[in-house]
Amino acid sequence: MAAVTNPLILSRNMSTEATPKPPDTQHLYGLAARFGTPQAVLAAARTINQHGYQRVEAYTPYAVKGLAEALQFHATGIPLIVLAGGLLGCLGGFLMLWYANVISYPLNIGGKPLNSWPAFIPITFEMTVLGASLFSLFGCLALNGLPQPYHPMFKAPRFELATQTDFFLCIEASDPRFNLAALHALLESTGPIEIVEVPW
Q: Residues 81-117: pLDDT tens digits?
């Protein structure tokens, strides 16, 4: 008898090249499950991760401790973006003061040197904070794809509860391991309130 391989327990080390989707899943954005507690969605996320799914997104009304790790979210570039903004703000603030006091409008005040850098520190510090803050704000917006007036999950039934009481987990159809029937059975085993197909 030929051995039957369960596609859900294949190793992540194997090739994950995307295969053409069956016609019945081409119209899908993904398969979403709704949970009533943070513990339930956390356990489901760990189960999904153990089975090798990579294109998974969680939608919760508040932060759930351990959920990001369960979904293996990778660190973003925000720290470097904030550092770059702070350095540019610092350099820009100092050069602005230096140019104004040394080049553009030099004044001899009590014999002090024109490039009196200790006097530049307060404004240089404020410019550093301003640059880091602005880069942090716009960097977060860009990395999160915001503003986003439309998302396929908006079509999911009762998705408005994701900002109130319920917790959603969506496995996108673009995941290399996506198989509608097998994934539905796997999500059923995690005890969701309901499972819905999310169209584009």
A: 999 999 999 999 999 999 999 999 999 888 889 999 9
In 3D space, the residue among 96, 78, 93 whose CA is nearest the CA of residue 133 turns out to be 78
**Rounded to the nearest 10 degrees, what angle do helices 121-143 and 78-98 cross at?**
150
CA triplet 130, 142, 150: central angle to 5 degrees? Answer: 135
Q: Which burial class, exposed, middle or buried, applies to 118 when counting CB atoms under 10 A from its CB (0-12, 13-18, 19+)?
A: exposed
Residue 176: what residue type?
P
- Rounded distance, CA 53 to CA 174, Å? 10
Query: What are 42-68's pLDDT values in tens digits?
Result: 999 999 999 999 999 999 999 999 999
Cα(179)–Cα(72) distance, rounded to whole angstroms? 21
Give the single-character DSSP code of 31: E
What CA–CA distance (Å, rounded) separates 148 from 141?
Answer: 10
Measured between alpha carbons, how far is residue 51 from residues 39, 91, 101, 113 in Å? Answer: 19, 49, 64, 68
End-to-end CA distance of the chain: 41
Helices (H), 27-77: 38-50, 67-70
